[in-house]
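Pasting as-is:
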Amino acid sequence: MQMAKVRGTVVSTQKEPALRGTKLLLLQFIDEEGSPAPGYEIAADCVGAGIDEWVLVTRGSGARIAQGSENRPIDALVVGIIDTVSVDNRLIYSKKDDPYR
């Protein structure tokens, strides 16, 4: 899994029938310090994540075998919303302390 920050949403009115009703998010991957990687990726969302939240993302076959994702043509799936991140006993991120939340 990887960490990412939700940057926006993606709306597609014409899509594969198996994707109907699937919420799509625009993500930017981040490192353990919260620094953004270049570029963006679109992922399906099964946990109800929102803009600016830090999330856990699984890609590849892991995204396709998650409950409710079977038979959907997805490469990335948001599988969790991050509450805290600590590295070497140092708090890097806390959702409750996030000024955007």
